[in-house]
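To whoever is on call:

I kicked off a structure prediction for a single chain this morning and the downstream step that reads the tokens threw a length-mismatch warning. I double-checked the sequence; it's 348 residues and nothing unusual in it as far as I can see. Pasting both halves so you can look.
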Amino acid sequence: MVRRVLVTGGLGFIGSHVVDELVATSYDVVVLDNLHPGAHRSEPARRDDVEYHVADVTDANAVAAALEGVDAVSHQAAMVGLGVDFADAPGYATSNDLGTAVLLAALHHTGFSGPIALASSMVVYGEGRYRCARHAVVPAGPRPVDRLEAGDYDPRCPHCGDALVAEPVPEDAPTDPRNVYAATKLHQEHLCGAYALEHPEVDVATLRYHNVYGPRMPRDTPYAGVASIFRSAYEGGRAPRVLEDGGQLRDFVHVTDVARANRIALESGRSGVWNVATGTPHTVWDLASALHRAFAGAPAPEVVGGWRAGDVRHVFASADKARTELGFSATVPFDAGMHDFARAPLRP
């Protein structure tokens, strides 16, 4: 029976909510966090009822110390987002891939036999799932630059060139990472899968988060999510700049639902891959508009076109597998969640 849980990255945005969820349900919690400056510009608040280790997950000795007495792990520590440019690649590979390898090696050395919940991401899918009227479900390759420059943002059928219809992406969809962050998240999955093969007594729950938002998101950083970027713009009296045409479809899931999914996964006694999402997509324009309604008098969002290298057009989730296998369903509705988020504290 799980009683003592290590949460790596437990002082971060999602990790701190996982800690809150576990403490609220009577778990003993240990946190390992390196206070990465990309996520922390000031010292975050700490709970009095949690044991903290301020160290990097790539530090084998620090990981071993944090694992003492632990019988479950929620692995949240990672660099997130698209970053600034490809020069960030070593940082992503070190934090995400090497960090996961060091953690798993430490678990091996300690004879760990409990469950692991891995924070993965929908970015491993690349583009989401698409259907052609003539060719059924087809892969959508990278969007050509000349079409993006012409404002033609939607993927087309690789066989006939016709328009495609986006569908919810299931967990058995092929993976196709399109940027450095995505590649490292998929490698984390592969490392945990390899660990599970050699340690069949260990359950590994791979949780592919969709677009997470909520209190404690970092503000004004290239590693922040789009919800935080838009909210920071409104707070600064600026109109959010909506790329492409604003029609990009995503699944925005509240961080408290994500934290609950981690607890449920650790308690489930199951290994597998699950989307953590609401199952209801919204456009990026919907996001900008929902936040605008909460900021009376703020300038309206602006569609500015353009695109980000490595970004995709549509990716949103099927939430059926998590509901049927884990009993997890998101509970925070989009409008209510965005209304609350507009007033929630962000990380300075």
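Update from on-call: the warning came from a stale cache, not from the record. Cleared it. Sanity check on the structure: The mean pLDDT is 94.
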